[in-house]
TrEMBL record:
Matching Gene3D superfamilies: NAD(P)-binding Rossmann-like Domain, Vaccinia Virus protein VP39
Protein source organism: Mesorhizobium delmotii
Keywords: Methyltransferase, Transferase
Domain of life: Bacteria
Descriptive protein name: C-methyltransferase
Keyword Methyltransferase in annotation: yes
């Protein structure tokens, strides 16, 4: 896969000429854009693994061109083509097999339960995935719950009384559902028209002015500031900053109640309730984010080059990447196209025995590493470094553990 450099080109100087790029921001609709790194072809869906290596290598790909809106500080893939990704039951992105992540979710459920007195109320989880968070929230709070997601699967964990799931998207097709609380976690970044999506939620006939919404997305500033570059994936159309997330919510007709960052600053959250749409006040953008954007193109390429050099000195059969989520799939596709990675390791049993789109890299469970003379374990997320080190120790592994 070729990584191209746009050298932060102006919006009228696109990084690639192979297809038409979106020329306006999906949040504020302004056309004052900078283009940064781009990819000729990356897998459409990092979280749709394959049953065999051949089908994984043949997985469909799309073009990626990172654009930055100078007006509202939003980032997005200007080459994204809506309708190319299908979120079916094959879509597997659950992180709830990690103790570190479970602890985060438990703390979040405790906080939301207390802040919004959810006992006896109806909580919706839109884009609920396999239902783990909604079950935790309702178990903690005493709320009833309905989860909506076409990728939901039955027989995933224990049932929770008062919680049900619908293999569909939430819409006016469910006019009798009257929520008191709505969570929508790691969904908005997948939506090509985020304002229209939020307006659709707000305009549901049973949503009231008192309905509380909790929205959570990846933090684009973490990608820029801390070089979390493996988060750039096709299925994420948008990369929200604190300002662009607030702009999106207020433009769609919400009043912001609270806003912040969580999970080691890797996530942004915003809590809001329906209000009257209003014009955004003029915003003075700091020079700091401009500097980050201009630096990102060069530092991205430098980081990819460093990893290619590192892996060139490693035995591919003794090198593994720990984490077969979007970060790990991106890593093996970019650096260096999977050629020097023996396997992806993941604690999620529903990923094990499958293969990464693009490269066909096998996904294995930690137990399969026992007794192997590994040289290097590349950890995709620094928050899991200690967890991985403990697991490696229990498996008797003496490999170098290095964070990507």
């Amino acid at each position: 896969m070729q990584v191209q450099s746009a050298a932060c080109a102006e919006a009228h100087e696109p990084a690639t000429n192979s297809m038409r790029l979106r020329g306006d921001c999906p949040v504020c609709r302004q056309r004052n854009l900078l283009h940064s790194v781009s990819f000729d072809a990356i897998p459409f869906s990092c979280n749709s693994l394959h049953p065999d290596a051949n089908s994984a290598v043949a997985a469909p790909t799309g073009q990626f061109v990172l654009a930055f809106c100078r007006n509202c500080e939003h980032f997005f893939n200007a080459a994204f083509e809506d309708g190319r990704i299908g979120y079916t039951q094959n879509y597997e992105n659950s992180l709830h097999f990690s103790p570190r992540f479970v602890a985060f979710v438990e703390d979040l459920a405790d906080r939301l339960s207390a802040a919004y007195a959810l006992d006896g109320k109806l909580a919706l989880d839109i884009g609920c995935g396999k239902g783990d968070f909604l079950k935790r929230l309702c178990s903690t709070s005493g709320a009833r719950g309905i989860g909506f997601d076409r990728s939901f699967e039955d027989n995933r964990g224990d049932d929770v009384a008062g919680v049900e799931f619908i293999n569909d998207w939430f819409s006016d097709a469910y006019p009798d559902v009257k929520p008191d609380f709505v969570s929508c976690r790691h969904v908005l970044e997948h939506i090509a028209s985020p304002i229209a999506f939020l307006q659709g939620l707000r305009s549901h006939p049973r949503v009231e002015p008192s309905t509380v919404f909790y929205i959570e997305v990846p933090n684009a500033l973490y990608t820029l500031r801390d070089m979390g570059i493996w988060d750039l994936i096709y299925e994420h159309v948008s990369y929200f900053t604190p300002h662009s997330l607030r702009v999106a919510m207020e433009t769609a007709g919400f009043e912001v109640l609270d806003q912040g960052a969580s999970f080691g600053d890797q996530y942004l959250f915003i809590e809001a309730k329906p209000s009257e749409p209003r014009m955004m006040a003029p915003y003075s953008k700091s020079e700091k984010i401009d500097a980050l954007v201009h630096r990102f193109d060069r530092t991205y390429r430098d980081k990819v080059a460093w990893w290619r050099d590192y892996l060139s000195n490693r035995d591919p059969e003794r090198t593994v990447v720990w984490g077969a989520g979007s970060k790990g799939i991106t890593f093996v596709n970019i650096v260096p196209e999977g050629a020097r990675i023996g396997a992806l390791v993941d604690v999620n049993p529903h990923k094990q025995g499958r293969f990464a789109p693009g490269t066909g890299t096998p996904v294995v469970g930690p137990e399969s590493l026992r007794g192997k003379p590994l040289q290097s374990i590349v950890v995709m997320n620094p928050l899991y470094r200690d967890e991985v080190a403990q697991a490696a120790c229990k498996l008797g592994l003496s490999a170098e553990i290095i964070v990507a």
